[in-house]
């Protein structure tokens, strides 16, 4: 079953006024495909902390990174001056590298006429877009949509992995708290046999959970366990 949450997309982009039209276009595409733009220092986030700290924290919190690459510097090949181009800001390379380090999917959009260098093409497929060309965008939307679908699948796989890890961690902690005593033995019996061998003590507070077939749990709630027994510890 698909998760109903919207993935959070860190927008890696220029903050210059002349680049706003392209960045706005990329953000609207991101929102159109069900991702929530966030995290850009100076655009979506601000804090009295070093910029690189904010970049790192926000990229780690995000589910993916969406790059809106626009030209920043004139770059010249010292061996072949015919290869002069308009390169992107080094901070965008840094943000893409951080996303890779955190295992976040990267979707990259490059404004036509921008030279991206060697790192980005070696790392991820990117989409070259014109800022105000409806025909160009209409032709490329199907491929862009498939890229967002693939990113969504990667994000949901990570969410599931995190949920499974949290469940396992909770069960390990439950054993650490209750030990192999009255309730601990009940848990062990259930793990080994699938049957709950020790009934709930008479007069004690009932566990609030239900079993897999919808029946009320037969066991007592543990003190300080929010109304649940050892088996159904939250």
Q: What topology does this entry show?
A:
Elements: E1 8-13, H1 20-32, E2 36-38, H2 51-61, E3 64-69, E4 73-75, E5 85-87, H3 90-101, E6 106-111, H4 119-123, E7 126-129, H5 134-178, H6 182-193
Parallel strand pairs: 1-2, 1-3, 3-6, 6-7
Antiparallel strand pairs: 4-5
Salient structural properties:
five-stranded parallel beta sheet; single chain; two-stranded antiparallel ribbon; 2 domains; elongated
According to CATH, the fold-level topology of the largest domain is Rossmann fold
Tell me the name of the CATH class of the largest domain: Alpha Beta
H/E series: EHEHEEEHEHEHH
Shape: elongated
Structural domain count: 2
Radius of gyration: 26 Å
Strand percentage lies at 5-15%
Low-confidence spans = none
- Total number of helical segments? 6
Name the helicity range: 40-55%
Largest sheet: 5 strands, parallel
How many extended strands? 7
N-to-C CA distance: 22 Å
Give a structural overview.
This protein is of the alpha/beta class and 234 residues long. It has two domains: 8-163, 3-Layer(aba) Sandwich (Rossmann fold), CATH 3.40.50.450; 179-234, no CATH class. 42% of the residues lie in helices and 13% in strands. The protein contains six helices and seven strands. The strands form two sheets. A five-stranded parallel sheet has the order 2-1-3-6-7, with helices on both faces. Helix 1 (20-32) links the parallel strand 1 and strand 2 (36-38). The chain starts with 7 loop residues before the first strand and ends in a 41-residue tail after the last helix. The model has no long low-confidence stretch (mean pLDDT 77).
């Amino acid at each position: 079953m698909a998760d109903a949450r919207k993935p959070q997309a860190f927008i890696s982009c220029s903050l210059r006024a002349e680049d706003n039209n392209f960045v706005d276009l990329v953000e609207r595409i991101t929102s159109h495909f069900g991702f929530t733009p966030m995290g850009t220092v100076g655009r979506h986030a601000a804090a009295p902390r070093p910029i690189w700290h904010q970049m790192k924290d926000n990229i780690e919190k995000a589910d993916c990174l969406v790059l809106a690459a626009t030209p920043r510097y004139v770059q010249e090949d010292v061996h072949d001056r015919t290869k002069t181009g308009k390169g992107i800001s080094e901070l965008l390379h840094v943000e893409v590298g951080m996303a890779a380090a955190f295992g976040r999917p990267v979707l990259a959009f490059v404004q036509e006429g921008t030279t991206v260098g060697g790192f980005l093409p070696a790392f991820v497929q990117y989409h070259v877009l014109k800022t105000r060309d409806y025909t160009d965008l209409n032709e490329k939307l199907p491929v862009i949509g498939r890229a967002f679908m693939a990113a969504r699948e990667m994000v949901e796989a990570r969410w599931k992995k995190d949920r499974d890890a949290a469940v396992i961690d909770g069960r390990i902690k439950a054993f650490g708290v209750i030990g192999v005593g009255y309730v601990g033995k009940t848990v062990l019996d259930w793990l080994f046999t699938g049957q709950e061998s020790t009934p709930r003590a008479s007069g004690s507070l009932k566990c609030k959970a239900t079993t897999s077939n919808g029946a009320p749990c037969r066991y007592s709630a543990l003190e300080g366990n929010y109304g649940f027994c050892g088996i159904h510890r939250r």
